[in-house]
Amino acid sequence: MSRTVAIVSLVIVLASSVLATVARLTNGAAGAASRPAAPTPAAPPGVVGAIAAFQASFNAGDVERICRPGSLLDPAVIRRLNAQSGGCAAEAESLANAASPLQLSVIDARMRPGLATALVRNGHGRAVSVDLVPDHGRWLLSFSGDAEPLSALAGT
To answer: How many domains does the chain contain in total?
Structure first.
């Protein structure tokens, strides 16, 4: 009887593994929309987590969280967005309507004292460089070159 249980268990484990592999291959885009790809060894978990939190909030349409200074974005980014016509909320809503769902994966990260720079691939396949600044033990998205990170990551 224990041999039969062991064989059945092995078959279940193998079948689950095969089904999971097939699901990843056939639904890669859907999986990417819900979570970023695994980080490279150079990408610290906090940086990957910050990108993932931004993606989740963007895809959920959580404009309040995105535009709250110090929540996901560096307060300097929020100030710059709010200085533009319409402000942060209008920009985030506009981009969410045009670019949702956002699909991001961290492909590399470089660390310097007080700054991380992540190379992020968006759903359009374009690699975008985004700076992140430390804030109380976590990372906040800062600028992408001289631009704010919302439109850079959305690919617009």
So the answer is: 2
Asked if 155 and 99 count as a contact pair (C-beta separation under 8 A), the reply is yes
> Rg for the chain (alpha carbons), in Å?
19
Greater confidence (49 vs 4) lies with: 49
Neighbours of 90 (CB within 10 A): 15
Interstrand relation of 105-112 and 115-121 (parallel, antiparallel or unpaired): antiparallel
Which tens digit of pLDDT belongs to each residue from 13-41? Answer: 333 333 333 333 333 434 444 454 444 44
| C-alpha of 4 from chain center | 45
- 87 in the same domain as 17: no
Amino acid at 131: D
**Nearest CA among 88, 68, 84 for reference residue 150:** 88
The residue range of the domain holding 13 is: 1-28
Q: ω into residue 101 within 30 of 0, thus cis?
A: yes
- Rounded to two decimals, the pTM is 0.71
Query: Measuring CA to CA, which residue among 120, 117, 116 is closest to residue 106?
Result: 120
Examine the domain organization and report whether 40 and 80 are in the same domain: yes
Q: Look at the block and give the residue holding tokens 């268990």.
A: 9
